[in-house]
């Protein structure tokens, strides 16, 4: 055996070991990549394909109609109503989540309350976050029924009389479901902002005190700037989650009465499973996906800038 062949034999295991080490990271992410492909990428591609065809699934031989489905959905007055309701529901819920979450977080972070009192309030305030959407929907349907506790309390205190139809009155239904969603979602903001408040150095407040700042000036000059990264992240996430809310709306009002609580999620569901227009439902789902992707892009850009 020549010296060159010996050298190649000695170097071969080294090259094999180096190649194996280089492929190990890909082997670790392969199962996750397969799951994402099968459970996310493939369904999304299929739905996008359905949106360019006539009624799929119920039609054995669907044909391409290109943008006809998009024109039909975008021209549907119910779709316009769903967009407006979704914007009102989402913006109102997210704004209230932030205000209530920040207020309760600051109360739980104050030094004026004892540990026992803060622990008690923390337990009470976190309760809505422990319930599932089904439990929340059933609970509030009972509370807001014409013979429910809310009407009884309002009648007893003289604020309102009679049996108010909170979830069946077209003038009250959207506000009622928005209130329910606010009640169910503010603990997420409260816990996150409380953690942020506890991470703010006390030296900043002491320096502001030395400079003669009062409580309001400290809040806007120290607290808010320190919490800004957390607030922006939570606002973007809550916008994405709330705009896709389905279970709570479906189990309280079902999008009614007369579409006053119709959301993009319930509109898409009805197209698919009430009217069996799966191509139109796919089109609506693609539009919702596009809106969600816009918010997701802002969130990712914010996270990169934060890092």
Automatic annotation (TrEMBL):
Q: How does it sit in the membrane?
A: Multi-pass membrane protein
> Is Cell membrane set as a keyword in this record?
yes
KW Transmembrane helix (keyword) present: yes
Name used for this protein in its record = Carbohydrate ABC transporter membrane protein 1, CUT1 family
Cross-referenced PROSITE patterns: ABC_TM1 (PS50928)
- A GO biological process held by the record: transmembrane transport
Q: Where is the ABC transmembrane type-1 domain?
A: 83-299
Listed A to Z, the keywords are: Cell membrane, Membrane, Transmembrane, Transmembrane helix, Transport
Which family does this protein fall into?
Belongs to the binding-protein-dependent transport system permease family.
Q: Which residues cross the membrane?
A: 26-52, 82-108, 120-143, 172-195, 278-300
How is this protein annotated for GO cellular component?
A: plasma membrane
Note the Pfam families from the entry.
BPD_transp_1
Source species of the chain:
Herbiconiux ginsengi
Q: Where in the cell is it found?
A: Cell membrane
């Amino acid at each position: 055996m020549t010296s060159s062949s010996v050298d190649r034999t000695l170097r071969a295991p080294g090259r094999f070991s180096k190649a194996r080490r280089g492929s190990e990271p890909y082997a670790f992410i392969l199962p996750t990549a397969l799951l994402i492909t099968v459970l996310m990428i493939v369904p999304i591609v299929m739905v996008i394909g359905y949106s360019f065809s006539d009624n799929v699934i119920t039609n054995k031989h669907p044909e391409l109609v290109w943008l006809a489905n998009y024109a039909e959905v975008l021209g549907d007055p119910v779709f316009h109503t769903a967009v407006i309701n979704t914007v009102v529901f989402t913006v109102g819920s997210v704004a209230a989540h932030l205000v209530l979450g920040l207020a309760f977080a600051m109360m739980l972070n104050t030094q004026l309350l004892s540990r026992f009192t803060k622990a008690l309030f923390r337990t009470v305030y976190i309760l809505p976050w422990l319930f599932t959407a089904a439990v929340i929907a059933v609970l509030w349907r009972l509370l807001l029924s014409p013979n429910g506790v809310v009407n009884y309390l309002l009648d007893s205190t003289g604020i309102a009389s009679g049996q108010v139809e909170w979830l069946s009155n077209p003038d009250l239904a959207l506000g009622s479901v928005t209130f329910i969603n606010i009640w169910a979602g503010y603990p997420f903001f409260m816990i996150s902002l409380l953690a942020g408040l506890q991470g703010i150095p006390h030296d900043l407040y002491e320096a502001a005190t030395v400079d003669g700042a009062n409580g309001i000036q400290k809040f806007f000059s120290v607290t808010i700037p320190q919490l800004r990264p957390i607030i922006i992240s939570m606002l973007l996430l809550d916008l994405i989650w709330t705009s896709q809310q389905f279970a709570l709306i479906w189990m309280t009002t079902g999008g009614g009465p007369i579409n006053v609580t119709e959301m993009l999620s319930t509109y898409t569901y009805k197209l698919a499973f009430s009217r069996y227009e799966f191509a139109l439902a796919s089109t609506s789902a693609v539009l919702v996906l596009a809106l969600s992707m816009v918010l997701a892009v802002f969130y990712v850009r914010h996270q990169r800038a934060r890092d």
